[in-house]
Amino acid sequence: MAIDFEKFDKLVNNEEIQKQMDSAPEYDDVPAGTYVADIKNMEVKTTKAGDKLMFSVSLQIVETIDAPKKQDKRYIFFNRVICGNKNTEKWNDGRAIKGVISWLDHFYDDGCGIEFKNYSQFSDDILDIYQEIGNTVQVKVDYSPDDFNPIEILDVFDV
Q: Checking phi first, is residue 8 left (phi over 0); if not, alpha (psi -120 to 50) or beta?
């Protein structure tokens, strides 16, 4: 469906928009660094296209430990497709799911205890973990936005 841009262009005061743009700060992504963060969301959801499932975590930075400048209150994300991956020896859905379980194991002394049976059970188990730990722990992480595994958990702290 085509967008009728003329309708929106008639609503715009170009001088005002330019003033707003001139006074807006430059946007920059959260740089690689070490942070302490709160877990704000953890779930299994569909990708934007709706054709795959992914494990999704959002973390809010509460302390910048090692980064070019303070990033407190900003968000970092970890998303991993767990259904719909190409099926190769190096990467497939099973490896993706095992990677998610390994990531979740950081929150428990004896591992998270999840065994994959099906996606609905896996999603329920992840929601259970989030409900259990979501407001009770903070994580110290190394964040590398350009890496395949962008968030490496270094430590878990009780709040």
A: alpha
Lookup: tokens for 101: 């379980």
- C-beta of residue 31 within 8 angstroms of C-beta of residue 65: no
d(CA 89, CA 44): 24
Quote the pTM value: 0.82
- Residue 142 dihedral angles phi and psi, to the nearest 5°: -95, 125
- 112-126 confidence digits (pLDDT tens): 999 999 999 999 999
Q: Encode pLDDT of 13-64 as tens digits.
A: 889 989 998 898 887 899 999 999 999 999 999 999 889 999 999 999 999 9
